[in-house]
Amino acid sequence: MQRDEVATHARIKDVAAVIMQCIEENGGRLVKSMGDGFLMEFGSVSSAISSGVSIQKKIAGQNVRLGNEDRVVLRIGLHVGDVIVDGDDIFGDGVIVASRLEGLAEPGSILMSQSAYGHLNGQITNQLVSMGNVELKNIDRPMAVWQWLPENSETVPADQHVSGVQHQSSKPSVAVLRFLNLSSNEGQEYLVRGICDDLQSSLSKSQLFRVVARNSSFSFDPNAVNPQQVGRALNARYIVQGSVRTAGQRIRVNATLVDTTLATEIWSDKFDGELEDVFDLQDQMTAALTAAIIPEITLAEIERTRKVRVGDLSAWDHYLRSVQLMQKMTVSSNREAIAHLQTVLDLDADFSSAWAMLSRCHVTAVYQLWGENEDEELQIAKNAARRAIETDPTNPLAYDAKAAVHVFCRQFPEAILSAQTALKLDPSLTSAYSSLASALAFTGQSKEALEICFQADHISPRDLDRSQRQMAIVIANFVGGNYETTKQECQRCILIKPNWFGVYTFLAASCAFLGEAEQSKAAISRLLEIIPQYTRTKHKERMWLQREIDRQKLLEGLEMAGLPK
């Protein structure tokens, strides 16, 4: 046997010994063991719960002394019910319910039915938390359940199985609960379930957080949800809950995002649609909900990290700090973001999204002329984008980072392909829409670029950072010859990113063509504040416009605006 197999076998024997000791101490019987599962029988609930608590505490005590790879975490289900005795074995509903509860239990916890809870007579009831009514597979009606968790427990997400601890990045977990069907027609339940299924699947595509498996999160009765209790049961920092109401051919979906640690509602909204095409409706609702929820969670997480001392920051926290710093668009914030990302990768070299963000940081530095060595900075960006894909080939942010590198290198067909790949993986990733729109705009495809930007604005009106998309709108209007609109869109872009030097070149040229000399000169003045001694010759070398007619038009406008040759 290999060393890992020997160690695993030895660890399982240790765990089995603990279980047998606790069973015997509490007058129980081991009915049978099934791989890594054990079926136990006790004469009373008091004995059963005492044994279960003792098992969990002793296993947790052993885990403290072990490395992450050697830890074993158990789930326990407890139920009082009728059984069928067949020799030394037992069968029946009592066994089935206990097994279903074990499957729903959080690792390290005990989940018990109401019938078991009723026999406790006050024993450890102060350590139990009501989880409300849950649905169990093949059980006719929802069942009230209670959960025991060890004090100060370090638990793992409910969608993980036994051994292992939470990933070092400490990404938050999100649970999508079943939405409440407020329609008088119970036949619409399939539509409610479909929206919840699709939303759960869509959020799972995001690399920014974990999504609790639906067999756990959908088990809670939407009529009786306590966010903090559900959050604790599922180890979910955020839950999404809501309702669906139909009237004729109209449908309204209300959704709420709750921070379970603070028991506060951080976002809510409603979405209306028509029931003409159910599948198309589900796609629209899912896209709208996903695009709204992801930025809100990111904003909430960024706000949370502001209260964390630097020395206590996890890899995930450092990553969030870099996201926030990148929005400031200054040399110092860029370098500070890179430092945070390097810390992330020191803690977790396989954090794909951190590699993707590192690539974007270096591409931005090259574009803004912040680096001492442009070739070296660009190579770092390329390598980071490659590593992002290598560490997680399913991460849409990785392909979006690659698209940004291709755009900078004027490899527009490759940029379009990478952005499209990102959007196939996550149709709600608005930064990928921006990369795609930029590539189209630079190649003179004005109408197509604007259509892409419109799609992104439609699905995500509250984007964390829409500056790249706004810049794509600027470029698309300029190459389309719409100088008045270009000027207006430049002004919107400046409100978002006042230090992005490229926007001032298009603003200056557009104002010059509109005969607004003072505004064009003011734009040149601001441009030279950002990059002193910038000239038309330097800009000619740094233009990303592919069509010669567009390049000449921009240079003509900059000459009219007064940018030195």
Describe the structure.
- The chain has 4 domains: 3-148, Alpha-Beta Plaits; 173-305, 3-Layer(aba) Sandwich (Rossmann fold); 309-427, Serine Threonine Protein Phosphatase 5, Tetratricopeptide repeat (Alpha Horseshoe); 429-565, Serine Threonine Protein Phosphatase 5, Tetratricopeptide repeat, CATH 1.25.40.
- Helix content is 54%, strand content 13%.
- It contains 22 helices and 14 strands.
- It has helices spanning 3-25, 45-64, 93-104, 114-117, 189-204, 214-217, 227-234, 278-305, 315-326, 331-347, 352-367, 374-391, 396-408, 412-425, 430-442, 446-459, 467-479, 483-496, 501-513, 517-530, 536-541, 548-561; strands at 29-34, 37-41, 76-78, 84-86, 89-91, 110-113, 128-134, 143-148, 173-176, 180-181, 210-211, 238-247, 250-259, 264-274.
- Strands 9, 10, 11, 12, 13 and 14 form a 6-stranded mixed β-sheet that branches.
- β13 (250-259) and β14 form a beta hairpin.
- It is elongated, with a radius of gyration of 29 Å.
